[in-house]
Amino acid sequence: MLTEKRHEIILSLLNKKNFVSLKEILKATNSSESTIRRDLKSLEIENKLKRVHGGAKSLSRNSIEASYNEKSSLNIDEKKSIALLASTLIEDGDCIYLDGGTTTYSLIEFLSTKKDILVVTNGIHHINALLDNNIKCFIVGGNLKQSTRVVLGSEAINFLNKFRFDKAFLGTNGAHCELGFTTPDIEEASIKEAAIKLSKESFILCDSSKIDAVSFVKFADINQCTLISTSNEKINKFKNLTEIKVVD
What we know:
By secondary structure, the chain is α/β, with parallel strands linked by helices.
């Protein structure tokens, strides 16, 4: 079995429960103990799990999600390139949903050239930027998540259900061929899922650090959305699974 496939199996097992024993992994992969120990070491270096006595433990279920300010300082140029490509998909007169992440925030500066568009967002940081660019917008009402500055909860989803979008642009914490698009927060997953259902087309803006990553809660299957990312070896595995738009 190829290394890549073994890694996918291990992460899939960890997505289902917090701890997976070495015995379970050996059975699932039909591999030797020495091979699996090397795999676990490699995945730990990639910050995808934590090795513990007797097996491996999920990081995503117990780690604290980075704050908005922390995320905004990461992969800035890459996010901007992805956002620029995403902006070319927006047409005059579109009603769009803009997720409250840092990559989607980068999209706002490219929207001022669009005529008569309407943006609905759950991102607190997004509102000032939208207003500064003279873009008509609505802010979703509901509970405010302090760390990531987004509005969540049942009230937010009820508000969102009033709209029908031409396009939705969302961020993700992970994009995995088998395990789909994921986020650490179940409420964030719920509002992303609702936005996708309410949109004619949905696009995931995903920098290279999120490719192959797996977080706690799935909000969409890979084939439900178009993936917008940067050109790299990892992206090739998605080509037969979903539509991809790649920044060269």
